[in-house]
Amino acid sequence: MGAVAAHHLLGKPGDGNLILLAGPNYERMTRLVSDSGIASMRFSEVNGLDALKTRVDLSRTSVIVIAPLHEVEGLLDRSAFDGRLTDLAYSADRVVYAGSNGAVLVHPASPGTTMEVRGGRLVVRQRLDVVEAGHVVTGLTVDRL
Question: Structure pTM?
Answer without folding.
Answer: 0.73
